[in-house]
Design goal:
Elements (H helix, E strand, L loop, with lengths): L8 H15 L6 E2 L18 E2 L7 H14 L1 H20 L1 H12 L4 H19 L6 H13 L4 H17 L5 H11 L7 H28 L10 H11 L11 H21 L2 H5 L3 H10 L4 H5 L10 H19 L3 H14 L1 H19 L2 H13 L4 H18 L3 H18 L4 H16 L6 H10 L3 H28 L1
Antiparallel strand pairs: 1-2
Helix pairs in contact: 1-17, 2-17, 3-15, 3-16, 3-17, 4-11, 5-7, 5-9, 6-7, 6-10, 6-22, 7-9, 7-21, 7-22, 8-20, 8-21, 9-21, 9-23, 11-15, 17-20, 18-20, 19-20, 19-21, 19-23, 20-21, 21-23
Length: 494
């Protein structure tokens, strides 16, 4: 009997489109009145649902749905491709690798201190740009350092994997999770950022304590290691391959400049998406923008720049396109090489863009078949007897289960948000809270799901079996689950 293999996200999502199309023949069609028919997102008026004539979706509509999905999500898709190109350029410079290598080199001999520092760095990568596959290169660098210092391979593995994983769990501005979810929910990426920062800090503190406690126990008594039976084998494997290359840990001036551009780009993005004026009454960016535009000649040359705090995907895309050009000027690639790297970076995220289009096609079939309003109506009816705390807790559990089915965080966001965001309106729960629940749930599942290529690949590099990893991590995951659940519940109450 052949071993069962989980279908790809593309297959799962297309099958969902077919299932939804079939359901449009069965589920009653309906419609709502909306607060503003021209607004984005559409906000349904409670109690205005009414049944309409059935509009079942056929074979042609199933094939057309992903195409319309692409048209409906062009701003998000273009943003994903451009930021992919930007990351491709930064990766080619080796700036991030050299930066982390430099830190590892400087902290040699102080590996216990290295645990919180490196976990914070990888968490920043996870929360800012969804650092995941990019971590693979660091396991070979970091694990030998920790083994040489008297720790085990699990400690070195955990510093990287849990650091980046917790960062993705608390995705403050991660464009591939929070960004996509916010786009489909119709709100700014900056909304809910305070709650996500709280979750990030709380879970990271516990994660650092968990890894440090295990690491100190192993260093004090190596027999306490879960891979103690491989101690001699691991020392021979990792330490015999360890090579000291001082040049790799020395950052050039150009690499430092690239890192500054990288950091400032994401900082400006954060400042751009937080609704300073609308939510907090802070108009300093509007005032500055008006002052600059009022300067003769210069204001005209710069054009109608959107003030920080009012940015949407188009503005963020321009930012990273401009940052790509600046990186090109600093690194001085030849024109063809620059284009090649940018296109290769965008190509790496083409799969994400395709998933967004296909997933958006699910909403197209539901909307055209009149199912969306009916499902919202069922949600409205069920929420009459359910408080906001119960709703957000159940949503969190729902996202946990759905994350196993759709391991792609971007695919899950595009799949769930068109429905869950309007349902949250009926429960008097902010759409940003639902996005935070989704990101946290997806982050927890990605720490354990065997369908994660990063997890299984990292475990293979660390020479740790999946069974041993589960034995080591399950209590920590339970704590994360309960902690996030408590924070979400309190956030709804207050």
């Amino acid at each position: 009997m052949k071993k069962f293999r989980m279908p790809s996200a593309f297959t799962i999502l297309f099958l969902i489109i077919i299932v939804i199309a079939v359901l449009t023949w069965i589920v009653p069609a309906g419609t709502y009145q909306y607060v503003d028919e021209t607004a984005t997102p559409l906000e349904p008026v409670p109690g205005t649902y009414e049944a309409i004539a059935q509009n079942p979706q056929g074979f042609w509509e199933v094939l057309r749905a992903p195409i319309e999905g692409f048209f409906n999500a062009t701003d998000i898709i273009v943003f994903i491709l451009v930021i992919g190109g930007f990351l491709g350029l930064v990766t080619d410079t080796g700036a991030i690798d050299s930066g982390i290598g430099s830190i590892v080199s400087r902290l040699s001999g102080r590996e216990t201190v290295m645990i919180p520092i490196l976990m914070c760095i990888f968490a920043l990568g996870g929360t800012i740009f969804g650092m995941s596959e990019e971590t693979i290169a660091f396991y070979v660098l970091v694990i030998p350092v920790f083994i040489a210092a008297g720790f085990d391979s699990i400690t070195g593995f955990a510093v990287i994997f849990l650091g980046a994983g917790i960062g993705c769990l608390g995705s403050t501005v991660n464009p591939f999770a929070t960004g996509i979810a916010s786009g489909f929910a119709g709100i700014s990426i900056g909304e809910g950022i305070v709650l996500r920062v709280i979750i990030l800090v709380a879970t990271l503190v516990i994660g650092i304590w968990f890894v440090m406690a295990y690491g100190k126990k192993v260093k004090a008594d190596p027999s306490k290691s879960l891979v103690y039976h491989m101690k001699e084998s691991n020392e021979q494997h990792f330490l015999s391959q360890k090579e000291v290359d001082d040049s790799s840990s020395v950052m050039s001036g150009k690499q430092k400049a690239i890192l500054w551009v990288f950091a400032l780009s994401f900082l400006i993005m954060v400042l751009g998406v937080i609704p300073w004026a609308d939510k907090f009454g802070i108009t300093v960016f509007e005032d500055f923008n008006g002052w600059v535009r009022g300067i003769p000649v210069l204001g005209t040359v710069l054009g109608n720049i959107t003030p920080l705090g009012s940015w949407w995907f188009g503005d963020i895309t321009i930012l990273f396109l401009l940052s790509s050009f600046i990186c090109g000027l600093i690194w001085r690639w030849k024109e063809l090489r620059f284009i090649e790297l940018f296109l290769n970076g965008a190509k790496d995220l083409l799969g994400v863009a395709l998933i967004i289009g296909i997933t958006r096609g699910i909403a197209v079939v539901m909307n055209d078949g009149g199912m969306t309003a009916t499902i919202l109506h069922w949600g409205e009816e069920s929420l009459k007897s359910m408080g906001s705390v119960a709703f957000v807790d159940l949503s969190y559990l729902f996202f946990l289960l759905l994350s196993f089915l759709v391991p792609s965080s971007s695919g899950l966001a595009a799949l769930a948000m068109p429905i869950m965001a309007p349902v949250a309106d009926f429960a008097a729960v902010g759409r940003d809270v639902i996005i935070t629940a989704y990101a946290s749930a997806s982050g927890i599942v990605n720490l354990i799901t065997p369908t994660s290529g990063v997890l299984m690949g990292a475990l293979a590099i660390a020479r740790v079996s999946y069974g041993i990893y589960l034995k080591w991590i399950w209590k920590f995951l339970l704590v994360l689950f309960l902690l996030v659940l408590a924070i979400l519940s309190v956030a709804v109450i207050f």
